[in-house]
Design goal:
The chain is built from 3 helices and no strands. By secondary structure, it is mostly helical.
Length: 92
Amino acid sequence: MRKPLVNLALLVVFVAIPAAQSVYYPPPGQWARKAPADVGMDPARLTDAVEFMKTHETASPARDFSHQEIVNGKLLASMPTERAATSRSEPS
């Protein structure tokens, strides 16, 4: 009983891999933009969600990344000095 299930699982994996959607890598500075309705989102609800998050920003202190040097021997990347506010870009 176990072997047919393993074979079925392998068949599903090998059939699904070629059918997987390719990864989207936009050219620098040319991100695709779509209106919320074009991707199945309710524009009014999205606006409500963004406005809610703007009024409920986190008050947590800035994160301390100094332990990265201890763990990894160096910083993994440059670290921001402060957290940006919630924002929403309108499609052009």
